[in-house]
Structures are given as structure tokens and as C-alpha cells.
Amino acid sequence: MLAVAAIAAGCAPAGTGASGPAHPTPSRQPLKAPPPATTPGPHAGNTPGTHAKKFKSAQSALAARAAAAKRWGLPRIPLTPPPPPATKPRITTREGFEVDGHEKLGLPPVFTTVPTKQRIVFLTIDDGAEKDPVFLRMMDDLQVPYTAFLSDYVIKDDYGYFKRMQRSGVTLNNHTLHHPYLPALSYRRQQYEICGMQEVIEERFGKPALLFRPPFGNYDRDSLRAAKSCGIQYVPLWNEEVFVDHWEYREWDQKIRSGDIVLTHFRGREDWKGTMPDMIRRFLNKVTAEGYAVARLEDYL
Ligand SMILES: [Zn+2]
């Protein structure tokens, strides 16, 4: 059973939100990384051998993660995801999400979760209106992977911001040129929206996207045909959406499961009552407390 409200909520225009500066100076986070948290212990030189070295480097990696968590106001250290799987899971379209002739036409699979037994979730961030430099520093520092779905009309005033994001290892994906409700458009118009965004991504960021997410999660057969026609291989939707002040769930029992794709948006104080780092804290606090690590979606596709 699906919670339709959660589906409709994706990318919906935000509420009135709090008034305030668009780029407030963060009060809790230092802008520069402090000096390394660990120094060699008193016996550092007395334990040769790779085991000791490995133990020490694991220890200092943990200490660095603990320090980063503290810097960003997280009560728990985010869990480290397992290495990418040697054999990728088989991604299929979720039951009830197929279009006519889906398999026969070889259309990209539409899914909300990745089949895995590992205790991991995937973070995906949509649109691109808010361009908070503190958010980029936070995610680099915490080493939390995520996947972006960008719409040209909100990113075109600052492609450089997303170029920096890409340089830190984030994959930039397709979320149309103007964020329309696709099923209302003709095939040609849908193709313009999706394939036009492919051209923007290729021109600005070097290579076209393999992942496409339809605005609001709404699509029809033409959307998937158009996406396929310009190289899209996967259409990931989401099972949960995290906001700055609450979570919403697709499933009736309101629980996170292994392999779930979580949606959020590039939004700031103009759209909701907090900053991107505030939202990330809400996201990480819950997934870490429930024992989930955040993994990179592309590693499973
Ligand atoms: Zn959107």
C-alpha cells in the first residue's frame, strides 16, 4: 500500500517558511577544518608490522570521523558503508510503477529501493535552488555520499557551484530543464525537457546523465521513452523524503528499510525553517541511530 501524500510531496512548492537571510552565517560550524584530531601515541614507533599500522590508520580514521561529527553537531558518528558490491543487484521496476509495454520496449526501470541486505540507505537531493557553500564543506568533511538531480532553470545562475559538487565525487543527474508535470506534455515536449537537460549536463559537466528523476515523481510511457532516447538507464524515485523538520514515508508502517532511496531538496531558509546542514543533521541523526550507513547509489547500479 502506498502513501500517496508522500509521492505528491516530492518537489512540491515549499510552504511559506521562515523569513530570514538566504545565506546565514552558521553559528555552530567552523568554516575551516581544525588541525588533525590525532597525534601519534607514546608507543607509535614501537609496533612495526602491517597489522599494527592498519590498526593505527583505522583508529585515526575513526578519530577523524568522530571529530568531523562533533564539528557538525552530530551526536553520533555516521556509519561507514560497506565496500561497493562485487556483483550489482538486479534493478527492476517496482510493482505498480510499470507503464504499458515497459519490459518489451526496454524502458529504464522505475524503483524506490535497491534490493540489498546491507544496512544502507541512499541520499538523493533534487532541484538545485539553494547553493549553500557550507553544505558542500559539511558533506566533504563527513564523507557522506549523495546523488543530485538537477533542473536547469534553478541551477543556471551558478553552474560553478555544481561543478564543485561534481569535483568532490557527486554524480549530477537529470531532473528536466524546467521541472514540468510531464504527463501533461506531448512526447516531443517531454523529449525537449529531458533530452535538453542531457545536453546542458553534457555541455556544463562533461558527460550526460545515466539517471533521471521525473519532477514530482510523475511520469508516463512517453517520459520513459523520451528518457531512454537520450541515454537514461535508470529512473530512481524514493521511499522516504526528509525535510528540515520532519520525515515523510511512502510505506504504510513509516519505517526505513535496507536499500531505501531517500529524497530531499536543495532548499534554504527561504523555503523551510533551517539550512541544508540542519536538514542533513535531521537525516543523519535518524539513519545513524537506526544503524544505517549512507552508501553511493551509483555503486549499486
Ligand atoms: Zn524536483
From TrEMBL:
The UniProt record lists the EC number as: 3.-.-.-
Q: Which residues form the NodB homology domain?
A: 119-301
Q: Where is the composition biased (Low complexity)?
A: 12-26, 40-50
| Keyword set, alphabetical order | Hydrolase
Identify the stretch(es) annotated as Disordered. 12-54
Question: What is its EC class?
Answer: hydrolase
Q: Which Gene3D superfamilies match?
A: Glycoside hydrolase/deacetylase
Q: Which Pfam families match?
A: Polysacc_deac_1 (PF01522)
What InterPro entries does the record point to? Glyco_hydro/deAcase_b/a-brl, NODB_dom, Polysacc_deacetylase_ArnD
Out of the domains of life, which is the source?
Bacteria
One example GO MF annotation: hydrolase activity
Any idea what this protein is called? Polysaccharide deacetylase family protein
